[in-house]
Design brief:
Layout: E1 13-17, H1 21-30, E2 36-40, H2 46-54, E3 58-60, E4 74-77, H3 82-91, E5 97-100, E6 113-117, E7 120-124, H4 131-144, H5 149-166, H6 170-179, H7 183-191, H8 194-211
Parallel strand pairs: 1-2, 1-4, 2-3, 4-5
Antiparallel strand pairs: 6-7
The chain binds ligand PQ2 and nicotinamide-adenine-dinucleotide (NAD).
Amino acid sequence: MYYPIMMNIKDKNVVVIGGGRVAYQKLIGLEGTEANLTIISPTIIPEIKEWMKHNNAKWIEKTFEPIDIEQANIIIATTNDSATNHEIRIHKKEHQLLLLADNPKDSDFITPATIKRGKLNISISTGGASPSLAKKIKKDLEQQFDEKFEDYIEFLDYARHIVLNQIADRSLRKKLLTQLLDSKFYNLTVEGDVIKRNEIFKEMLQQVKGQSF
Ligand SMILES: C[C@@]1(CC(=O)O)C2=NC(=C\c3[nH]c(c(CCC(=O)O)c3CC(=O)O)Cc3[nH]c(c(CC(=O)O)c3CCC(=O)O)/C=C3\N/C(=C\2)[C@@H](CCC(=O)O)[C@]3(C)CC(=O)O)/[C@H]1CCC(=O)O
Ligand SMILES: NC(=O)c1ccc[n+]([C@@H]2O[C@H](COP(=O)([O-])OP(=O)(O)OC[C@H]3O[C@@H](n4cnc5c(N)ncnc54)[C@H](O)[C@@H]3O)[C@@H](O)[C@H]2O)c1
């Protein structure tokens, strides 16, 4: 069984070996993490070149050597040469986390299909059984959780912080945080009526505050 976690990899050294389609897919997943990204590969596809214009990553134009992973925290091996992927596995240290794109059995982790909407992250894994199914489920959920969720999550984050700061009583907090999930807040966010949405939230907050005295 795999253990699902959300990792903070800011400033961690992530080394991606290989510069093809799979490397590109993994780099997209690493977007916004603020990790130190290094790509080791004699070639990279045009999509990665384009991606590097908007994202921070260092490309070292060479074939893999063990020294390339010495400082790595996380290693993502995506070459099309199984002998190289095997060599990477042999040289990685016990404490380093390795993903072998052609060999989940010997990997320390696998990557799920992911929908990102601001801070909302919906990840789907089949435990390696069917990456295509993970992708299909993702496509289906993308319709339900569209781009508008980005603003909505931002509002929930903002409102929750206010609730946590201003309401000391745990059960009242929980009540308010549940009330915040009422669809009117989502609908007003989608309609762009931020003023009305915030007013309703403030009224709710005052009401609950009244109950706590
Ligand atoms: C979800 C996604 C995320 C991502 O890549 O970030 C992802 N694979 C995706 C697509 C995809 N991969 C493959 C196909 C072709 C169809 C097929 O073979 O089924 C397609 C479909 C396509 O491309 O359309 C081939 C494939 N994949 C793996 C192997 C090796 C093996 O199974 O032994 C082979 C055979 C290689 C060969 O033939 O040699 C292994 C893995 N792929 C995983 C993740 C991990 C398990 C995730 C899970 O289910 O939990 C795992 C274990 C390790 C890892 O890579 O993390 C991404 C969709 C993202 C998106 O579009 O949103
Ligand atoms: N996990 C997944 O989701 C998934 C999906 C499809 C394929 N795969 C596996 O991943 C492998 C890569 O797939 P791809 O489509 O990206 O292949 P690709 O041929 O597009 O890219 C391979 C890359 O590896 C580089 N490379 C080759 N030898 C190297 C070495 N010694 N050192 C550094 N870089 C080297 C090449 O220059 C190239 O950039 C496939 O062989 C397949 O087994 C995994």
